[in-house]
Design brief:
With 650 residues, the chain is an alpha/beta fold. The chain contains 21 helices and 26 strands.
């Protein structure tokens, strides 16, 4: 069987049209590398793939011609049979009393041939929320200045932000991803390039809120923190070094009192997050010990082993393992406190958290899920008008075969961790639920291929976890969207992500009635110009100064400004300041509106410029105003007038 036939059978699309309409064919060597990196799968003969049962909606499953009837089936929850039966027809109608969950379906035909497939029983749709139309304050948490933090915004600042947002009429606070990064590589600070999506970044911990923290025993902490606070950018190396020393000091005190009530709470958390927490802590100890990627570690540690992790925890490295667990527990408790405060205010969303599309290949998630995450393949995008060479985001993503083998549990675990303290999450590059553009290691971004994903099963898992956690799911559906994708996403109750800067026809901004109801609407994103920067051409000038093609001429920008003014006037809005734009967005049907704090403060520089690393202070810029002065720095009356049709309690 030739390579391209193999690719077709395994769901790898080796031919496609890029964003410029150019026909592309993946080179044979690159295609072979992609196939080698994906887990082998036995082709389904009895059913077409993962089986999805939607409660409240008929969900019969067709039986393929490869099965000789009659066919016996049973549904297993691990080793327990929850239902079984037999069919002499080429269709199975599933029992109506199945409980939501992830199962294995076992099939045996009359000739004794067997087949297995994952089966997901899920609510019909994702959680829809219990409000009409609200708005959220969108913030890069690291950027917050305050008179008390240690050079980076932290979870105590977030509590204050929640209170501020509530006072302004918001229903919640939207944040950059809070995923765990690499504590020994603090300068690699992109929140979208995580070590793990299952755990939190400890740099957001407020040390002074830990009961065991003692400033007397850490006398240089406040002076060092004050120096870090004075900078206009976050000095991640200095912040990380200072906070790690303080965390070790507080942990030493915590560990010395084995009978404290806090020890009992810690053990409850450990049990609740087992076995992932123990594995993560062991992984971090080993990563620090060996100082190289996990696939170069000694053979015994190249894959997670719970028995060996238990031995590590009870051996000479046990204290270090417990320290990492303590740090995660501390971060989890402080983020939970932010959620609780939003709940006490009656905020209908609370925290809106962002979820990265993938993880670093040498991080915990890739080590922990080696079948479901392909470290040799990087998620990216094919060539388009703005990125003619294509894009390699350097992130490893899930693959279909590994997820099916594990009944989608790795994906479900990632969702649960993301929803743990959130009232809404945003799935970055939600198009990856249907297909991922993957670039094999050693090849250029324009030599990747689309790999199909089990879209319906992933949507079913999202709906199941969304309802279980009462968490709205917003899919970042920007870019080239396959036909029917948004319709299927809506059918499952996932919301769209509508960016006004992109919502145009032949350059003309679309009207208020265009914006969908179940969607989050916003003017821009962290990768785009702020309103002040866009209006003042700052983004174009900055990119040119960095030797980048901004993708837009000054003349085109003038036309865009004119078309924005025209769109506002069509809806009776005479001004063209940010409040005018905000008034336009607030009148749309979309149930959530995100307003960035940078735009409220008139900041001209955007948080991130794609395509740059050190040329621009991406993910490092701090806000120009301290937290306790934000309310005085913005025009609160103008904000409330623009958002008067939306209230924080909806």
């Amino acid at each position: 069987m030739d390579l391209f036939t193999q690719a077709k059978i395994r769901g790898v699309q080796a031919e496609y049209y890029d964003g410029q309409g150019r026909h592309r064919v993946t080179e044979a060597a690159a295609l072979g590398a992609i196939l080698d990196a994906l887990p082998q799968q036995s082709p389904h003969r009895f059913v077409s793939g993962p089986v999805v049962v939607r409660i409240g909606r008929p969900s019969p499953t067709e039986i393929g011609e490869g099965a000789s009837l009659p066919l016996r089936w049973k549904i297993l929850d691990r080793a327990t049979i929850v239902a079984q039966g037999e069919t002499s027809e080429r269709r199975i109608t599933w029992p109506s009393d199945l409980k939501t969950g992830y199962y294995r379906l076992h099939l045996v035909d009359v000739e004794g041939s067997e087949e297995q497939a994952p089966l997901i029983v899920t609510p019909e749709r994702a959680y829809a929320g219990d409000f009409d139309r609200c708005w959220l304050l969108a913030v890069q948490l690291y950027s917050i200045r305050s008179g008390r933090n240690w050079g980076i915004g932290d979870f105590t600042d977030l509590q204050t932000l929640v209170a501020l947002a509530h006072g302004l009429g918001a229903a919640g606070v939207g944040l950059n991803p809070l995923h765990a990064l690499f504590d020994d590589r603090p300068s690699d600070c992109s929140p979208y390039s995580p070590n793990s999506r299952l755990f939190l970044n400890p740099l957001y911990i407020d040390l002074e809120q830990i009961p065991e923290f003692s400033p007397q025993e850490f006398p240089d902490a406040y002076a060092a923190a004050r120096r870090l606070r004075e900078s206009d950018i976050v000095h991640y190396v200095g912040v990380a070094e200072l906070k790690r020393r303080a965390l070790r000091d507080t942990f030493d005190k915590f560990a010395s009192d084995a009978l404290s009530p806090r020890r009992q709470e810690f053990e409850q958390y450990r049990a609740e997050r087992a076995p992932l927490l123990s594995r993560f802590a062991c992984f971090e100890v080993l990563r620090h010990r060996y100082g190289k990627p996990w696939w170069e570690w000694p053979e015994e540690w190249r894959a997670p082993d719970d028995k060996k992790c238990a031995e590590l925890r009870h051996g000479p490295d046990g204290r270090e393992v417990e320290f990492i667990e303590f740090v995660q527990w501390t971060a989890d408790r402080q983020l939970h406190a932010c959620k609780e405060i939003a709940g006490r205010f009656g905020m209908k969303v609370g925290l809106y958290l962002d979820v990265a599309v993938g993880v670093q290949a040498d991080g915990f998630d890739a080590w922990n899920e080696q079948a479901a995450i392909s470290r040799q393949l990087a998620v990216g995008a094919p060539p388009d008008a703005l990125n003619t060479a294509g894009q390699d985001w350097g992130l490893a993503g899930f693959n279909a075969g590994g997820l099916e083998l594990q009944s989608f549990e790795p994906f479900a675990e990632m969702l649960r961790a993301s929803m743990r303290h959130a009232g809404a999450i945003r799935l970055d590059h939600v198009l990856g639920l249907k297909r991922l553009y993957l670039v094999p290691s050693g090849f250029k971004p324009d030599n990747g291929a689309y790999v199909q994903m089990p879209f319906e099963a992933l949507l079913a898992a999202v709906a199941l976890e969304s309802c279980a956690n009462r968490c709205i799911v917003i899919g970042e559906d920007l870019g080239t969207v396959p036909e029917g994708f948004r319709e299927q996403m809506r059918d499952w109750g996932l919301w769209s992500y509508l960016v006004m800067m992109f919502e145009r026809d032949d350059g003309r901004f679309r009207g208020i009635d265009h914006f969908a109801e179940n969607a989050l609407v916003t003017f821009n994103t962290h990768d785009l110009a702020t309103y002040a920067g866009w209006r003042g051409f700052h983004d174009l000038m900055l990119k040119r100064s960095l030797g980048m093609d901004p993708g837009e001429s000054d003349e085109a920008r003038w036309r865009a400004l004119g078309m924005l003014d025209e769109a506002l006037r069509r809806h009776g809005i005479q001004g063209h300041d940010f409040w005018s734009v905000l008034g336009f967005l607030a009148r749309t049907r979309s149930r959530l509106l995100a307003i960035s704090l940078e735009d409220l403060l008139g900041v001209v520089d955007q948080p991130n410029i794609p395509g740059t690393v050190n040329e621009h202070p991406n993910w490092r810029q701090r806000l120009p105003v301290a937290l306790d002065r934000i309310a005085a720095a913005i025009d609160v009356d103008a904000l409330k007038a623009a958002t008067r049709e939306r209230s924080g309690t909806c």
